[in-house]
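REQUEST ID: PR-0412
SUBMITTED BY: lab tech R.K.
PRIORITY: routine
TASK: structure prediction, single protein chain
INPUT:
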Amino acid sequence: MHRRRRLPLFVILLLASAVPLTGVRAEDTPLRILVRADDAKFIGTGVGGLYATVRDADTGELLGGGAVAGGTGDTAALMSEPRPRGATAVSDDAASLALTLDLEQPRRIEVSVTGPQAVAQGRQRVTTTTWLLPGQDRSTYPLVLHLNGLLVDLVGYDSTRAGLSIEADVSMLCGCTITDDGPWRAGDYRVEALLYREGEILHRAPLAFTGETGRFAGTLPPAKGEARVLEIRALQVSTGNAGVFREDIVN
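STATUS: complete
OUTPUT:
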């Protein structure tokens, strides 16, 4: 007597995956992508926006892309209000990229985002992969990525007999401002200026908060001579967010 042998389940699944899908209708699959700055709000138009691409993670096929644009979202909902499990702090006006993909079968997608675009030295990149199912609603339940860092820019410098006076602007990646008494308090930040020549540090000095939103200033000792590199470093102590600005200068 001959008995029919059953194939193991993993073999059945393997064979099924190898069968081409014919007659399967593509389904509209909405996808909304947002990017939140660590310890801050959503990154959008105010800092030049970001650029996002969506690819098939296995084949590299480009499925969509575009600018992440819009506002930073609701400050209270993002920074102070408690949220129960399943609740979202994403508002309709928060910066995002909305796409509709036509999917015939589940795809493992790779989403890559670069920005903010306004300050070149502040640009970061984040990439993630996730499964997306045909017809799945990732607009109501959007994909939120996170970027770590600070935006650091040089406002100006002036060389005098007393030294090199420097003023810098520092903000969160979303452009959220640093003040004495707001959500992002100046006392949580350490800002420093360094002067290099041929890779060696000549001088370094702290930059203190001036009282004006986002502004830090200080003076480096005099250092006449050939071209040098000015570097400004900023650190948010409580989170590890950091940013750097560099520029060649000549007296």
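NOTES: The chain has a mean pLDDT of 89.
REVIEWED BY: pending
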